Amino acid sequence: MSKKTSAKPSHREASPAEQTRAALVHAALKLFGRQGYDGTSTREIAAEAKANIGSIAYHFGGKEGLRTAAADYIVDTIQTIAGQAVGSQAIGSQAGPEAARAQLFAALERMVAFIVASPQAGEIVQFVLRELSHPTAALDRIYAGVFEPTHRRLCMIWEQATGEPAESERTRLTVFTLIGQVIYFRIGREAVMRRMGWREIGEAEAAKVVAIASDNLGAILAARSNAARKEGKP
């Protein structure tokens, strides 16, 4: 008679310590983004997380360690989103430029879905904007873990789509422009809603942003394609 082996569940309940740690990271992300690092006390963070103030030192060694943990949380979160949006492997050359163009449009749609429509993105963007204004070691972690690799990946896809070198100044600036138009709808959210007469930016509104951003991407790709044909490039 064979013995049955019980499979371990793929998900388990977080322990109380893990729940406290996660609550502190989320509270720090929210308050550092809203009030700044210097303007936020550990007491405020503990109160927001509904945790004992001593748990900050226990889990993170102090306030600075908590800021580092918040940066790492951002890296982990956006790496997951970016992986879904742009993939982790280069498109095979046999797939041709059409596949790369399709991936650019898909990446743009996923960026809008997260950056513009996801409530979670608001706190992340606020934190990152603070870091961009007053860079610390936390920004170094976010840049190395998210900004640089994601931008580089998009530049590679752009090269496959257009034939323009991935690391050329023109390509890098073009990719920044594509990302920037999406980010504006998050940092300028209140102005956009007032001017558009929207009560919120949910899925329906995000779909309209995707449509316009996709039109912009299509226009850039068409212009580059026309220019290449005039120059006699394939």
Description:
It is a single chain. This protein has 234 residues and is an all-alpha fold. The chain folds into 2 domains: 16-69, Arc Repressor Mutant, subunit A (Orthogonal Bundle); 89-232, Tetracycline Repressor, domain 2. It contains 10 helices and no strands. The chain has helices at 16-35, 42-49, 54-60, 63-86, 96-116, 119-133, 137-162, 169-187, 189-196, 203-230. Helix 1 (16-35) packs across helix 4 and helix 4 (63-86) runs parallel beside helix 7 (137-162). The longest helix is centred in the C-terminal third of the chain and has 28 residues, at 203-230. The chain is elongated.
Key attributes of the depicted protein:
Arc Repressor Mutant, subunit A; elongated; 0% strand; 234 residues; disordered N terminus; mainly alpha; 2 domains; Tetracycline Repressor, domain 2
Quick structural overview:
By secondary structure, the protein is mainly α. It has helices spanning about 15-35, 40-50, 55-60, 65-85, 95-115, 120-135, 135-160, 170-185, 190-195, 205-230.
Structural class from helices and strands? Answer: mainly alpha
State which percent range the strand residues make up.
Answer: under 5%
**What is the 3D shape?**
elongated
**CATH fold assignment of the largest domain:** Tetracycline Repressor, domain 2
The helix count comes to: 10
What's the helical proportion of residues? over 70%
CATH architecture tag of the largest domain: Orthogonal Bundle
* Total domain modules: 2
Q: How confident is the prediction overall: mean pLDDT?
A: 90
Describe the protein's topology.
Elements: H1 16-35, H2 42-49, H3 54-60, H4 63-86, H5 96-116, H6 119-133, H7 137-162, H8 169-187, H9 189-196, H10 203-230
Helix pairs in contact: 1-2, 1-4, 1-6, 3-4, 4-5, 4-7, 5-7, 5-8, 5-10, 7-8, 8-10
